[in-house]
Amino acid sequence: MAKTRIDFMGKKKYFFALSGALVAISIAALLIRGLTFGIDFQGGTTMTLSGAEGVTTEDVRAALEEAGVPDTSNATIQPTDDGGFIVRTAESDTARAQEAFSAVSETLGLPAQDANVTTIGPGWGDNVTEASLVALAVSIVAILIYISLRFEYKMSLTAVLALLHDTTIVLGVYAISGREVTPNTIAAVLTILGYSLYDTIVVFHRIRENATGLTKMSFMEMTNESINQVLMRWVNTGLIQVIPVFALFFFGGETLRDFAFAMAVGLLAAAYSTIGLASPLYAVWKEREPKFQALKRKYAAHAAK
What we know:
Layout: H1 12-32, E1 36-37, H2 39-42, E2 44-49, H3 57-66, E3 76-79, E4 85-89, H4 94-108, E5 117-120, H5 122-150, H6 153-177, E6 180-181, H7 183-211, H8 219-229, H9 231-251, H10 254-286, H11 290-304
Parallel strand pairs: 1-6
Antiparallel strand pairs: 2-4, 2-5, 3-4
Helix pairs in contact: 1-6, 1-10, 3-4, 5-6, 5-7, 6-7, 6-10, 7-8, 7-10, 8-10, 9-10
Protein backbone atom coordinates (compact mmCIF):
# COMPACT_ATOMS: atom_id res chain seq x y z
CA MET A 1 0.00 0.00 0.00
CA ALA A 2 1.07 3.56 -0.65
CA LYS A 3 2.17 5.66 2.32
CA THR A 4 1.10 8.89 0.62
CA ARG A 5 -2.29 9.80 -0.84
CA ILE A 6 -1.54 12.63 -3.25
CA ASP A 7 -4.17 12.89 -5.99
CA PHE A 8 -1.88 13.18 -9.01
CA MET A 9 -4.47 11.92 -11.48
CA GLY A 10 -7.03 14.38 -10.19
CA LYS A 11 -4.64 17.17 -11.23
CA LYS A 12 -3.80 15.70 -14.64
CA LYS A 13 -5.50 18.56 -16.53
CA TYR A 14 -3.22 21.05 -14.76
CA PHE A 15 -0.20 18.88 -15.57
CA PHE A 16 -1.21 18.70 -19.23
CA ALA A 17 -1.75 22.47 -19.33
CA LEU A 18 1.67 23.10 -17.75
CA SER A 19 3.40 20.71 -20.17
CA GLY A 20 1.61 22.30 -23.10
CA ALA A 21 2.64 25.78 -21.97
CA LEU A 22 6.29 24.77 -21.44
CA VAL A 23 6.49 23.07 -24.83
CA ALA A 24 4.75 26.00 -26.57
CA ILE A 25 7.15 28.50 -24.98
CA SER A 26 10.13 26.32 -25.90
CA ILE A 27 9.02 25.94 -29.53
CA ALA A 28 8.33 29.69 -29.78
CA ALA A 29 11.82 30.41 -28.41
CA LEU A 30 13.37 27.99 -30.90
CA LEU A 31 11.49 29.59 -33.80
CA ILE A 32 12.05 33.21 -32.75
CA ARG A 33 15.48 33.20 -31.12
CA GLY A 34 16.86 29.94 -32.45
CA LEU A 35 19.79 27.99 -31.06
CA THR A 36 23.31 29.33 -30.81
CA PHE A 37 25.56 26.58 -32.12
CA GLY A 38 29.18 26.39 -31.05
CA ILE A 39 32.07 26.18 -33.46
CA ASP A 40 31.98 22.38 -33.31
CA PHE A 41 28.80 22.60 -35.38
CA GLN A 42 29.37 25.74 -37.43
CA GLY A 43 33.14 25.78 -37.76
CA GLY A 44 35.34 28.63 -36.58
CA THR A 45 38.04 29.40 -34.04
CA THR A 46 38.31 29.29 -30.27
CA MET A 47 41.14 31.24 -28.68
CA THR A 48 41.92 31.33 -24.97
CA LEU A 49 43.42 34.57 -23.63
CA SER A 50 45.15 34.41 -20.24
CA GLY A 51 46.31 37.12 -17.85
CA ALA A 52 43.69 39.63 -18.99
CA GLU A 53 42.99 41.28 -15.62
CA GLY A 54 41.48 44.72 -16.13
CA VAL A 55 40.53 43.95 -19.75
CA THR A 56 36.84 44.25 -20.62
CA THR A 57 34.75 42.36 -23.14
CA GLU A 58 34.54 45.54 -25.23
CA ASP A 59 38.34 45.78 -25.23
CA VAL A 60 38.62 42.24 -26.56
CA ARG A 61 36.02 42.86 -29.27
CA ALA A 62 37.81 46.04 -30.37
CA ALA A 63 41.13 44.15 -30.51
CA LEU A 64 39.51 41.42 -32.64
CA GLU A 65 38.21 44.02 -35.07
CA GLU A 66 41.60 45.69 -35.24
CA ALA A 67 43.20 42.30 -35.98
CA GLY A 68 40.87 41.86 -38.96
CA VAL A 69 38.87 38.95 -37.53
CA PRO A 70 35.67 38.52 -39.61
CA ASP A 71 32.20 39.11 -38.14
CA THR A 72 33.48 40.37 -34.78
CA SER A 73 30.02 41.68 -33.83
CA ASN A 74 28.85 38.06 -33.55
CA ALA A 75 31.97 36.77 -31.81
CA THR A 76 31.34 35.13 -28.45
CA ILE A 77 33.57 36.52 -25.69
CA GLN A 78 33.26 34.61 -22.43
CA PRO A 79 35.18 35.62 -19.26
CA THR A 80 36.82 32.76 -17.36
CA ASP A 81 37.30 32.25 -13.65
CA ASP A 82 41.07 32.83 -13.87
CA GLY A 83 40.77 36.37 -15.27
CA GLY A 84 41.01 35.47 -18.94
CA PHE A 85 38.65 35.08 -21.87
CA ILE A 86 37.45 32.34 -24.19
CA VAL A 87 36.80 33.88 -27.60
CA ARG A 88 34.85 32.12 -30.37
CA THR A 89 34.92 33.62 -33.85
CA ALA A 90 33.91 32.66 -37.38
CA GLU A 91 37.54 32.53 -38.60
CA SER A 92 38.14 29.09 -40.16
CA ASP A 93 41.70 29.54 -41.48
CA THR A 94 44.29 28.21 -39.03
CA ALA A 95 47.14 30.52 -40.07
CA ARG A 96 44.98 33.66 -39.93
CA ALA A 97 43.59 32.58 -36.57
CA GLN A 98 47.12 32.25 -35.15
CA GLU A 99 48.02 35.70 -36.50
CA ALA A 100 44.84 37.18 -35.00
CA PHE A 101 45.67 35.66 -31.62
CA SER A 102 49.12 37.26 -31.63
CA ALA A 103 47.70 40.61 -32.74
CA VAL A 104 44.96 40.58 -30.07
CA SER A 105 47.44 39.63 -27.34
CA GLU A 106 49.74 42.45 -28.39
CA THR A 107 46.94 45.03 -28.63
CA LEU A 108 45.61 44.14 -25.17
CA GLY A 109 49.10 44.05 -23.65
CA LEU A 110 48.70 40.49 -22.42
CA PRO A 111 51.69 38.61 -21.00
CA ALA A 112 53.63 36.31 -23.33
CA GLN A 113 51.76 33.04 -23.77
CA ASP A 114 51.49 30.12 -26.15
CA ALA A 115 49.02 30.54 -28.99
CA ASN A 116 46.07 28.65 -27.49
CA VAL A 117 43.96 28.48 -30.65
CA THR A 118 41.64 25.74 -31.94
CA THR A 119 40.25 25.97 -35.47
CA ILE A 120 37.47 23.73 -36.76
CA GLY A 121 36.38 23.65 -40.40
CA PRO A 122 32.69 23.62 -41.41
CA GLY A 123 33.01 20.04 -42.68
CA TRP A 124 33.75 18.83 -39.16
CA GLY A 125 30.68 20.67 -37.89
CA ASP A 126 28.50 18.93 -40.48
CA ASN A 127 29.83 15.56 -39.36
CA VAL A 128 29.16 16.35 -35.69
CA THR A 129 25.60 17.49 -36.49
CA GLU A 130 24.87 14.39 -38.55
CA ALA A 131 26.31 12.06 -35.90
CA SER A 132 24.26 13.79 -33.17
CA LEU A 133 21.00 13.44 -35.11
CA VAL A 134 21.72 9.79 -35.89
CA ALA A 135 22.48 9.07 -32.23
CA LEU A 136 19.21 10.73 -31.15
CA ALA A 137 17.15 8.87 -33.77
CA VAL A 138 18.72 5.49 -32.95
CA SER A 139 18.13 6.06 -29.23
CA ILE A 140 14.43 6.82 -29.72
CA VAL A 141 13.89 3.82 -32.02
CA ALA A 142 15.70 1.52 -29.57
CA ILE A 143 13.55 2.82 -26.72
CA LEU A 144 10.34 2.23 -28.69
CA ILE A 145 11.36 -1.35 -29.52
CA TYR A 146 12.56 -2.20 -26.00
CA ILE A 147 9.52 -0.89 -24.13
CA SER A 148 7.12 -2.40 -26.70
CA LEU A 149 8.71 -5.82 -26.21
CA ARG A 150 9.20 -5.51 -22.46
CA PHE A 151 5.84 -3.90 -21.69
CA GLU A 152 3.46 -2.73 -24.46
CA TYR A 153 3.36 -0.25 -27.31
CA LYS A 154 1.14 2.23 -25.42
CA MET A 155 3.79 2.53 -22.74
CA SER A 156 6.54 2.93 -25.34
CA LEU A 157 4.74 5.73 -27.19
CA THR A 158 3.89 7.69 -24.04
CA ALA A 159 7.45 7.23 -22.74
CA VAL A 160 8.92 8.56 -26.01
CA LEU A 161 6.45 11.46 -25.95
CA ALA A 162 7.78 12.33 -22.47
CA LEU A 163 11.35 12.14 -23.80
CA LEU A 164 10.51 14.53 -26.64
CA HIS A 165 8.82 16.80 -24.09
CA ASP A 166 12.00 16.88 -21.98
CA THR A 167 14.29 17.41 -24.98
CA THR A 168 12.14 20.26 -26.32
CA ILE A 169 12.22 22.02 -22.95
CA VAL A 170 16.01 21.69 -22.69
CA LEU A 171 16.49 23.13 -26.18
CA GLY A 172 13.94 25.86 -25.43
CA VAL A 173 15.86 26.89 -22.32
CA TYR A 174 19.03 27.01 -24.42
CA ALA A 175 17.29 29.24 -26.96
CA ILE A 176 15.96 31.57 -24.25
CA SER A 177 19.27 31.76 -22.35
CA GLY A 178 21.39 32.11 -25.50
CA ARG A 179 23.85 29.47 -24.31
CA GLU A 180 25.88 27.73 -26.99
CA VAL A 181 24.93 24.24 -28.07
CA THR A 182 28.09 22.15 -27.99
CA PRO A 183 28.84 18.42 -28.25
CA ASN A 184 28.63 18.43 -24.45
CA THR A 185 25.02 19.58 -24.77
CA ILE A 186 24.22 16.69 -27.09
CA ALA A 187 25.93 14.25 -24.73
CA ALA A 188 23.87 15.66 -21.86
CA VAL A 189 20.62 15.35 -23.83
CA LEU A 190 21.35 11.70 -24.66
CA THR A 191 22.19 11.06 -21.00
CA ILE A 192 18.93 12.72 -19.96
CA LEU A 193 17.01 10.31 -22.18
CA GLY A 194 18.37 7.45 -20.11
CA TYR A 195 17.49 9.05 -16.77
CA SER A 196 14.01 10.05 -17.96
CA LEU A 197 13.36 6.56 -19.29
CA TYR A 198 14.50 5.00 -16.01
CA ASP A 199 12.08 7.12 -13.97
CA THR A 200 9.22 6.32 -16.33
CA ILE A 201 9.96 2.58 -16.37
CA VAL A 202 9.92 2.48 -12.55
CA VAL A 203 6.39 3.89 -12.48
CA PHE A 204 5.19 1.86 -15.48
CA HIS A 205 6.48 -1.36 -13.92
CA ARG A 206 4.45 -0.72 -10.78
CA ILE A 207 1.38 0.17 -12.84
CA ARG A 208 1.67 -3.07 -14.78
CA GLU A 209 2.00 -5.10 -11.58
CA ASN A 210 -1.04 -3.43 -10.01
CA ALA A 211 -3.08 -3.76 -13.21
CA THR A 212 -2.90 -7.55 -13.04
CA GLY A 213 -6.29 -8.78 -11.88
CA LEU A 214 -7.53 -5.22 -11.30
CA THR A 215 -11.13 -5.37 -9.99
CA LYS A 216 -11.42 -3.09 -6.94
CA MET A 217 -10.73 0.33 -8.46
CA SER A 218 -10.59 2.11 -11.79
CA PHE A 219 -7.42 2.13 -13.87
CA MET A 220 -6.98 5.83 -13.16
CA GLU A 221 -7.22 5.29 -9.41
CA MET A 222 -4.81 2.37 -9.63
CA THR A 223 -2.32 4.55 -11.56
CA ASN A 224 -2.54 7.17 -8.84
CA GLU A 225 -1.98 4.49 -6.21
CA SER A 226 1.03 3.18 -8.14
CA ILE A 227 2.66 6.62 -8.31
CA ASN A 228 2.18 7.10 -4.58
CA GLN A 229 3.74 3.69 -3.93
CA VAL A 230 6.98 4.63 -5.73
CA LEU A 231 6.91 8.33 -4.83
CA MET A 232 9.69 8.22 -2.23
CA ARG A 233 11.88 6.18 -4.57
CA TRP A 234 11.20 8.78 -7.29
CA VAL A 235 12.15 11.63 -4.90
CA ASN A 236 15.30 9.92 -3.62
CA THR A 237 16.45 8.96 -7.12
CA GLY A 238 15.85 12.50 -8.35
CA LEU A 239 17.89 14.01 -5.51
CA ILE A 240 20.76 11.58 -6.08
CA GLN A 241 20.80 12.56 -9.75
CA VAL A 242 20.45 16.33 -9.32
CA ILE A 243 22.87 17.02 -6.43
CA PRO A 244 26.12 16.07 -8.24
CA VAL A 245 24.95 17.84 -11.39
CA PHE A 246 24.40 21.10 -9.50
CA ALA A 247 27.80 20.63 -7.85
CA LEU A 248 29.38 20.36 -11.31
CA PHE A 249 27.53 23.47 -12.47
CA PHE A 250 28.63 25.66 -9.57
CA PHE A 251 32.13 24.30 -9.00
CA GLY A 252 33.19 22.75 -12.32
CA GLY A 253 35.10 24.43 -15.11
CA GLU A 254 33.58 25.92 -18.25
CA THR A 255 33.40 22.59 -20.10
CA LEU A 256 31.78 20.77 -17.19
CA ARG A 257 29.43 23.72 -16.59
CA ASP A 258 27.99 23.44 -20.12
CA PHE A 259 27.31 19.75 -19.59
CA ALA A 260 25.88 20.30 -16.10
CA PHE A 261 23.53 23.08 -17.25
CA ALA A 262 21.87 20.86 -19.85
CA MET A 263 21.76 17.97 -17.39
CA ALA A 264 20.17 20.06 -14.63
CA VAL A 265 17.40 21.39 -16.86
CA GLY A 266 16.80 17.97 -18.39
CA LEU A 267 16.70 16.10 -15.09
CA LEU A 268 14.14 18.51 -13.65
CA ALA A 269 12.01 18.21 -16.79
CA ALA A 270 12.37 14.41 -16.76
CA ALA A 271 11.40 14.11 -13.09
CA TYR A 272 8.26 16.15 -13.76
CA SER A 273 7.28 14.42 -17.03
CA THR A 274 7.26 10.95 -15.45
CA ILE A 275 4.44 11.89 -13.08
CA GLY A 276 2.95 14.89 -14.85
CA LEU A 277 2.85 13.59 -18.43
CA ALA A 278 3.80 9.97 -19.16
CA SER A 279 1.77 8.31 -16.39
CA PRO A 280 -1.49 10.28 -16.77
CA LEU A 281 -1.33 10.06 -20.58
CA TYR A 282 -0.91 6.30 -20.36
CA ALA A 283 -3.76 6.04 -17.85
CA VAL A 284 -6.11 8.11 -20.02
CA TRP A 285 -5.27 6.00 -23.07
CA LYS A 286 -5.50 2.70 -21.20
CA GLU A 287 -8.82 3.55 -19.57
CA ARG A 288 -10.44 3.70 -23.01
CA GLU A 289 -10.10 -0.07 -23.33
CA PRO A 290 -13.47 -1.85 -22.81
CA LYS A 291 -12.29 -3.72 -19.72
CA PHE A 292 -11.18 -0.59 -17.93
CA GLN A 293 -14.11 1.48 -19.20
CA ALA A 294 -16.37 -0.89 -17.30
CA LEU A 295 -14.35 -0.41 -14.11
CA LYS A 296 -14.47 3.34 -14.59
CA ARG A 297 -18.27 3.34 -14.91
CA LYS A 298 -18.62 1.01 -11.93
CA TYR A 299 -16.56 3.10 -9.53
CA ALA A 300 -17.91 6.39 -10.88
CA ALA A 301 -21.39 5.06 -9.99
CA HIS A 302 -20.17 4.07 -6.51
CA ALA A 303 -18.72 7.54 -5.96
CA ALA A 304 -22.03 9.13 -6.96
CA LYS A 305 -23.96 7.20 -4.28
